[in-house]
Amino acid sequence: MLSAFERVLARRPLLVKSGTGLVLGAAGDFTAQRLEGGAYDRRRGFAFTSLATFWNGACMHHLFQWLERALPQSHGLRSLLPKMCCTQLVINPFVYLPLFYLWTGAVLGRSLAQTREKAEKEYWRTLKATWALFVPFNLVNFGVVPARHQAAALALFSFMYNTAISLIANAESTRGVSWRPDHLYSEEISPQLHASTTGEASKLMAVDLSS
Questions:
Q1: Could you give the number of structural domains in the chain?
Q2: Which tens digits make up the pLDDT trace of 11-62?
Q3: Quick check: is 208 in a domain?
Q4: Closest Cα to residue 211, out of 104, 55, 99, 98?
Q5: Residue span of the structural domain in which 111 resides
Q6: pLDDT digit string, tens, across residues 134-173
Q7: 210 lies in some domain
Q8: In a domain, 31, yes or no
């Protein structure tokens, strides 16, 4: 199975990585919606799945290739630290998060003014929570995982990320809770999320996509 995956990955890397992002993005949101109960929201599912496919597939394929050419993994800390600075201080705050709000806002039918208001309200806490999760992950991903598997590893790790953010997405509107990141530690408020994520990772992106 692994050898077959390696062969397909070598021949069609972009297709494999995009497909991995699609499947795991859809699975993350579907899992969250099943845990919440109620009917499946296709529009919400499409918002998460389409973004995960584009970002974890095409974007990360090209970004990780470029990073590996510029900063080979074999250089150890000399390449690891610049990669971390690039992804956590440039890509996440100035590329991914703006894209996240614009993409999901467009799919969910928000106006640009509504999207901007939402981003301004949530940006800083969202960025801090993203760092809490992805700084330790990327240390391992860039330091240990072979370069050809890094985009797929990111997509796999993002399954938990997508599940958590989707669980949070409708919580405020359905339960009347005013969310803060520390609320995610509470088993009373979110028993499913509390049971499936722990520590800093459970602070993940307190974003209400339903408003």
A1: 1
A2: 888 888 888 889 888 888 888 888 888 888 899 899 989 998 999 888 998 9
A3: no
A4: 104
A5: 2-203
A6: 899 999 999 999 988 888 888 788 787 667 666 654 555 4
A7: no
A8: yes
